[in-house]
């Protein structure tokens, strides 16, 4: 089956309905053997040093994956640098399919975008709705994993992150992903619950550093809410595909996201929140709004390149956790 790369989450039901295999390029980049080398390859090709490492990593990843000749690029609702990424990939011979989430969550505009994608992949609404029903059964398993994280304290923050972030493409095989999730669910249900750990929320884009969750748990804190990763699971039981992607908060304004964050922070009884901001990302500006609107202790972390936590960041985390205690 042909593969199509994704720069972020899109209505993946359309792709599966067409018999293609979606590949989340972010996940492929960050789980590669040497993500930092991919960033440096993009810089050697001419990408500026002061640009988001995710964009550079995606660029090099696509060029290395010769079986990915088509990329769906989200031109509104994600990274503002995606336009130039599209153009440089197009220059390299990659077919680009643009997709835009309307800023105001307009249902008609969103339906138009979805139907343009359906036209490109030559699928009907009946096929897409069948794919939605199939994928929602898989998502339901990950919703249960999330519930076991915050309600029964049996799932680690890293596991919660990994399985939720993988719902952007279901690792290219929903049936295998569902079976893997079932195995983890069976295992965690027999674990003793974690007790007396600080309860943290993680908001912002998924981290580019690899050991954040492990470091927090070594120091007696757990992430029981991963904001953006949870959104990739489409956690609301919406009746139709358009409404499902209208309720998906990540591509829209920060105030819509904040309503979801505040609701989940209260429901999950969080002690504090870590706001992760990627270097050179426009979302760093939103930190000032988040700080003003959220009524919880908040630590802002900035990550640049794929790596482990540096000494300064570890020290800031230690101080934050001490303050929460």
TrEMBL record:
Key words of the record: Iron, Iron-sulfur, Metal-binding
Superkingdom of the organism of origin: Bacteria
The UniProt record lists the keyword Iron: yes
Signal peptide region: none
Cofactor(s) essential for the protein: [4Fe-4S] cluster
Family to which the UniProt record says this protein belongs: Belongs to the FldB/FldC dehydratase alpha/beta subunit family.
Name listed for the protein in its UniProt record: 2-hydroxyacyl-CoA dehydratase
Organism encoding this protein: Pelotomaculum isophthalicicum JI
